Write a sequence for this structure.
């Protein structure tokens, strides 16, 4: 049974789910526990690299305890934390990936106002 750990700040889309099943033969999707999700989503910008590593240490400990050889981790977020976590995943033999997306912007002019909305569409997973 192969799991995909979801280490990012958004909800998994149906196309991401389908692609993970097809590409990596995923049987189970594992969200971060709520306290870790809040931590991952709020990494202080003023932290040094060493402080980021220490800050996310509970996440790396949880990941090491709950993952198995060749599981997959979707890792996206703060660049320094993502870089470190991708490296950590490789060390414990988990496959770190990111989701590549196509972004489409739509502008609507309403008098003196311009409203912009963005739509993101999953394209592929890319190994980190």
């Amino acid at each position: 049974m192969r799991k995909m750990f979801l280490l990012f700040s958004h909800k998994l889309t149906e196309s991401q789910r389908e692609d993970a099943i097809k590409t990596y033969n995923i049987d189970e999707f594992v969200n971060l526990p709520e306290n870790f999700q809040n931590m991952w989503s709020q990494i202080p910008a003023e932290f040094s690299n060493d402080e980021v590593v220490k800050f996310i240490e509970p996440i790396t400990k949880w990941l090491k305890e709950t993952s198995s050889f060749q599981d997959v981790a979707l890792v996206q977020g703060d660049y320094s934390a993502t870089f470190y976590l991708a490296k950590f995943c490789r060390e414990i033999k988990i496959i770190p990936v990111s989701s590549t997306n196509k972004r489409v912007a739509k502008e609507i002019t309403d008098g003196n106002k311009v409203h912009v909305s963005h739509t993101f569409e999953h394209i592929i997973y890319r190994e980190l």
Notes: Helices lie at 14-24, 34-41, 49-55, 57-66, 79-91. The CA atoms of residues 36 and 59 lie 6 Å apart.
